[in-house]
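Title: Prediction job returns without error message
Component: structure pipeline
Severity: low
Priority: P3
Assignee: unassigned

Description:
Job completed but the reporter wants confirmation the result is attached to the right record. Sequence as submitted:
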Amino acid sequence: MNRAAVAGAAFRSPWIGLLVLVATMLIAGAVWMRWQRPRSRPWRETAPIAHAGHAMSSALFTKVLRRYLILVGSELAVLAVVGLAAAALTMRPLSDQPRERDTLSRDVMLCLDVSGSMKELDENLLRRFTDIAAGLPGDRIGLTIWNGAAITVFPLTDDARYVTGMLEFAVDQLNRGARSFVIGTEEGGSSLIGDGLASCTMRFDRLDEERARSIVFATDNALAGEPLISLRGAAGMASERGIRVYAVAPAYYITPDDAAELEAAADSTDGAYLTTDDDHVVDHVIERIVATEATHLDQPPEVVRDDRPTRWAAIAFGGVALLGAVTWKLHR
């Protein structure tokens, strides 16, 4: 991407301004040479005018001449400013805008079961994940999907726009039944609940920092293989690392025994068990996560490079308006 700084200002395409400057100089030179070329004048133009010196020395003529020169000078100055602004616009000016970042010492991993028994529910759960992410501004959020194996869709990040975009992309992929979205998750078996939770637990970084950590664990707890670690063992691993597990289960697709096991695992981490039959499940998850202790982190402002030419456009349009007014005044 072509970017350069010219006279303290940053431009995306400075070479266009150079071409405009060269073209302007060539045109100005051609006009000057044409005016300097001697021309034959008819006798009427060169005929002497009686009492011209007396008229030119009068106060009225001096006043009119001064006004004319001021208006012509103003016209040329405004025209130069408009030309400069137009040249700057062609170079696509850039400006750096510092943006304060509200960052919290709180990490939330969205952990989604994409096994066969969850296919009809995953799109809805991902939409709920999107709502949860929107309700936690400043938190670092990540997404991991799993079945027999786990893959990271995106790691923990506090870039809210990126998180929203990736979650919307995930919803679209599931809605279209895109096989590429879940490829790799079927390695090693199917519906390995404990392995899924353990994998999400290991996705947390900055373990040496005091941070509030949570997992939103969406699954129907329908075990269909031989996991390396049980759900209880994975919950113990999360508890040892200070990670709370908020289990979200599809109310109409989970058996009472599976629900009881999932609830016990979540409770052992000081988390909670919720089901999708609760219309306010998203609000409840957000409330519980926000209730965990988190501090605001001092972060340097993020510098955003803006290529909207608002300032130069205002100068150009304002100059054109002023030029019109001066020209009208000059020809009155």
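Comment from assignee: result matches the submitted record. Residues 194 and 233 are 7 Å apart (CA to CA).
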